[in-house]
Amino acid sequence: xxxxxxxxxxxxxxxxxxxxxxxxxxxxxxxxxxxxxxxxxxxxxxxxxxxxxxxxxxxxxxxxxxxxxxxxxxxxxxxxxxxxxxxxxxxxxxxxxxxxxxxxxxxxxxxxxxxxxxxxxxxxxxxxxxxxxxxxxxxxxxxxxxxxxxxxxxxxxxxxxxxxxxxxxxxxxxxxxxxxxxxxxxxxxxxxxxxxxxxxxxxxxxxxxxxxxxxxxxxxxxxxxxxxxxxxxxxxxxxxxxxxxxxxxxxxxxxxxxxxxxxxxxxxxxxxxxxxxxxxxxxxxxxxxxxxxxxxxxxxxxxxxxxxxxxxxxxxxxxxxxxxxxxxxx
Length: 330
What we know:
By secondary structure, the chain is of the alpha/beta class. Helix content is 43%, strand content 15%. The chain has helices at residues 3-21, 31-40, 44-54, 59-63, 68-85, 91-102, 141-152, 171-179, 192-204, 234-238, 254-268, 287-299; strands at residues 110-114, 120-124, 161-165, 184-189, 221-226, 244-248, 277-283, 303-306, 323-329. The strands form 2 sheets. A 7-stranded mixed β-sheet has the order 5-4-3-6-7-9-8, with helices on both faces. A two-stranded antiparallel sheet has the order 1-2. Strand 3 (161-165), helix 8 and strand 4 form a beta-alpha-beta unit. Helix 7 (141-152) runs parallel beside helix 8. It is elongated, with a radius of gyration of 22 Å.
């Protein structure tokens, strides 16, 4: 296989791996590229076996599988692509389908994300967009975007205390904890069901919330806090002593946007003279909401600037809207 063809195949396998582990919509997979590859390859059977190893039979999926229905639909689509090119059925693909059909439905469904270091973040998530009355049970694109920016800019977080507002499923914070060496990381949210799942995801990824620092200086002190922006007082916020404050995909309605600006203003007035760096990531779904956010920041006399955009190469993004990050000066 020529070097260029080998690189194309590796890229195709990586795309399938990342999208399957993250349980992305099947329509987002590069099926057309696969079919073209199958038609032009002298060893298309091996390519399909390689895809099986990178997806359904991936070691991560053995421990933390996506839903049975999702896996079944994926294998059936692989079979359709194979049979569109070959008249003979693939024993390996039908064996994989039989394994899925006879497997028990997992009690939890998972999404996993591979970091540049090879480490994996696995999240237990709701499959509903809005579940249990909150949007915090799924990972949104702005969280992926902020995590990718953080991994590329670890100095912004290294040896510092980070407070995340509206942590949701925990993807961004776990990526920072695993890649950026913060001194301490505070996950926070206000919804009880989100906090319960957040605790589970933090533990699932090898972090144990500790009330006191541990002897392991390579691992951050991790805590999960209930934080309601509308009722949190300045002394309560000051107790976190953050060097950095982050938030991702929390600009989804006017009420929450105004609440975010108010809590940021209280953080700016905390006694002690420590003024944190603030990064807010969002997806431009509604220009009016973004306009409201920047207007409220101006009224609160908080300066802001747009962080230069970066390529979205590490994670499989779900939507087509362009995420962005604002850096605020409190």
